[in-house]
Predict the structure.
Amino acid sequence: MNHYLQDIPEVFSSVNSSAAGLSNAEAAKRLETNGKNKLKEAEKQSLISRFFGQMKDPMTLILIAAAVISAITAVADEHHGFTDVFIIMAVVIINACLGVYQESKAEKAIEALQKMSAATSKVLRDGNIQQVKSEDLVVGDVILLEAGDSVPADARIIESASLTIEEAALTGESVPVNKFIDILNLSSGAKDVPLGDRKNMVYMGSTIVYGRGSAVITNVGMSTEMGKIADALSKAEEGQTPLQLKLAQLSHILSYLVIGICIFIFGFSLIRSGDFNAETVLSTFMVAISLAVAAIPEGLATVVTIVLSIGVTNMSKKNAVIRKLTAVETLGCAQIICSDKTGTLTQNKMTVVKHFSDDEKFLATSMALCSDAEVETETSSTGEPTECALVNYASSLKLNKNELKKDMPRIGEAPFDSVRKMMSTVHKTSNGDIVQYTKGAPDEILKVCSTIWRNGKAEPLTDVIRNEILAANKGMADEALRVLCGAFKNHTSAPADFSPDALETELTFIGLTGLIDPVRPEVLPAIEKCRAAGIKPIMITGDHRDTAVAIAKQLTIISDASEAITGAELNEISDEDFFTQIEKYSVYARVQPEHKVRIVNTWKAKGMITAMTGDGVNDAPSIKSSDIGIGMGITGTDVTKNVADMVLADDNFATIVSAVEEGRRIYDNIRKAIHFLLSTNLSEVLAIFFATLMGFVILEPIHLLWINLVTDCFPALALGMEKGEKDIMQRQPRSSKDSILADGMVFDIIYQGIIITILTVSAFFIGHYLESGKWEIVARSGAGTTMAFLTLSMIEVFQSFTLRSRTKSIFTSATGQNVFLIAGAIVSFILTTAVIYIPFFNRAFRFEPITLLEYTIAIGLAMSIVPIIEIIKLIRNTINK
C-alpha cells in the first residue's frame, strides 16, 4: 500500500493503530502472527558440497573414470600397479581443493542487511515510551526517532521537527533528505513516486542525521524496501563468466573427442586381434586408458587456477580485491561499466566549489557559525554533510569554527524548518555586540532581505542587484550546485524573542555558496582510458537529473542532456523498446534498485559483458546480476562487498582500469597456456593413435601422465606469467561469443601437434635402430620409448618459448625476458633427465638409460621445433602484410 499517498488518519486506519501506538498485548499478538522484523537468512552451501561441485567438469569426470578403470586393471594385472590411479586422483583432488579455496564465497549479504537495522528502538506501547528489540517491532507501532538513530523499519512520518535523514545507501542520493508529514501527490501522468522523493516516509537502513520525529510502522521484515532488495539478491542468478563458458565448451569438445577416440581404438584393437579373451580385452583397455590420459590435459584446470590466483595477488597489490577467481578475467572483456555516481565517480563529500559575495571571509564566517557541524580536524568536520561542507569551507580560509565560537558564542537560535527553509543563530561578540546569522534557500532569504553587504557596509538591495543575485543563483543551479544563501542582522541587545517571525526580518544579504559532491580527480583520465579500450562508461544514480547530467558532462560520459533518462521515464518504456533504445542513454537519474537490475540485464541481453560498480545497499541486486560486480571497499556497505566479485580497496574508479588491463593480460596468457597444452596433448594422441594402428607401444600411461603434469605444467605456468603486450589497452574488448581458440589458434594447434608427433615417432625409430641396428616395427623398444619420452618432453620446453607471442619472433619478444619460463625449462630438463637415469625412477617408469649419442639426438630433434615454428611465423606475417 502506498502510505505516502495517504493522510495520517488514513495511514492509522490502514495499519489499525493510533497516535498512542499499540498495547503490549496487541504487539505480541501481531508478532506471533506475522513474525519478526528481520530479513530471511541465506542458505549456506556446505564445504563438502562445494568440493564435489568442483568435480562436475566433464574432463574431471573422465579422469575419475580413467582412474577407476586403471584401478580395475591394476587389480587384474599385478604388473600394472596403482601409480596411474594415485597420480590421476591426486590431480583431481588438488584441482578441487584449489577451486574450493579460491572460489568459496559465503553468502553474507543478508546477514549484513540485518546488521544495518537498529538493535533496539524507542516505541510507544501502552501510552509509554519503551525500549524494545528492533526485531520485535510490528506494523502499527509508533517509533520515536532522533539524530543518530538507525531507522528500524519502513514507516510513515507523523511528526517532524527538522527531521533530516541520510538515505544514500538506499537511494543513491548524496544529500540528506528533509522529511515532513504532508501527504504526497502524484505528478501529472506519473504512476508512482520514486523512492528518493517519498519525503513523508522513513525506511529501514537509513540514518537520522538531524532533528527528531515520530512515525507509524507500515512495513517490517521482508516487506520493507530493504527486504525487497534482500529478496532480489536471493533470486538473482549468478551467470557463468566468459572464461567459465569457454573452458566448459572446451571441456565438452575434448570429452567427446576422448570418448570417440577411445571407443574407436578399443573396437579397432579387438577386431584386429580377432581374439576376445580376457587378456586381450584387458590390453585394449590399457590402450584406451593411454589415449584418455594423452588426450586430456590434466594440468589445464590447475594451470588456469594458478594463473588466475597469481592475477588475484597482482590485483590486490593494486587495491583490487578479487572475491571470485574467474572474475579476474571477466573485466578483460568488459564492454559496459555501469557506475554508481555517489562515492564512486564522486567523493561522497559535499564541498563548496563556488561563491557569490563581496566579502568571502564574512560569508564563510556566517555560514560556519549558523550551523551545527563541529570541527574534527583541520580538514574535516562532523555533522550533517552540507553543514560540514560549510565548516570545511571556512577552515579552508583559515577560519576555524572552534575559534569563531570562542569569539562569538551562540546565545539563541531559530532552528531550521523545512517550511520556511532557513535557520538563524544569534551570537554575542567579544566586544558585547549582538549579531544574527541566517542561512537557507536563496529565494526565501531574499524575501526577508532589505540590504546587501558591499564595500564593507550595508547598501540598499535594489531590483537591479536582486536580479544580479538571482542570475548568480540560477547560474550555480544550472551547474547542478546546491545553493545556500547567507545573511546577517545586527541587534542593539539580546532578543527577547528568538522565534523565526521575530528574527528573520530586515536582513542584510551577504552572499551565495554553491555546493556539490565533487568528482574524484582521477576518474576523468580513467574514463578516457576506458574509452580507448573500447569500454562504454554509464552513470546510474539516485540523484536528480540535473545533478547527474552536470557530473556526467564534466566527466565526458555524455555531451548532451538527451543522453540522460530518469527512472520514471524508464518505467514508461517497454522491455522491447528499451532493448532497441538502450544504446542512446549513458546516464540514468532518480533510479530505484529494480531499474539498475533492468539496465544491467538489458545490456547482457544484447550480448555485452557488463560490470556494475556501487557502494550502497541499492546497488547490491544489480551488482549480483552483472557479469562482474564491483564494490567499494571504504564507503561500500557490507552488503555490496559480500555480493561483489571484486572490491576496490581504495574506492578508486581508476583502479578498475588497472584491473581491466590485468584481466586482458591474464586472458591472453591463459590462451597461450591452452595453445601450448592442446598442441602437446594432440601430439600425444596422434603418437599413441599411430603406434596403435601400426602395432607397437611408443609411450605408456604413466609416461604421458608425467609429461602432462611436469613438462606440460611448468612451461604452461610460466606462459601464464608473461607481461602484457604494449597495445593491450588500445584493443577493442573481445566478443563474449568468440571461442577461446579464435584467431587461427586451431590451425596452430593442429600443425604444431602434427610436427611434434613426427619428431616423437622419429625419435622412437631412431632409438630402436641405435639399439638393434635394424629399421623395423617392433611391439616394444626400450631405447626407442626412452628417446621418444625425452624428445617429447624437451620439445614442449623449447616450443613454449615460441608461444610467448603468436606473431613476434622468439628473438624479438616485446615483453622482455620471462625468468619463470627459463626457470621452468631448467626444472623440466633436470626432472626429465633424472627420471631416465636415476635407478629408482627409471625402474618405476620402466625406462632404459640411453647413451650420450642417443640423448644428444633426442635433444636435437626437440630443438628443431623452434626453427620450424619461427619459419611458419615469418611466412604468415609476410602473407598478412
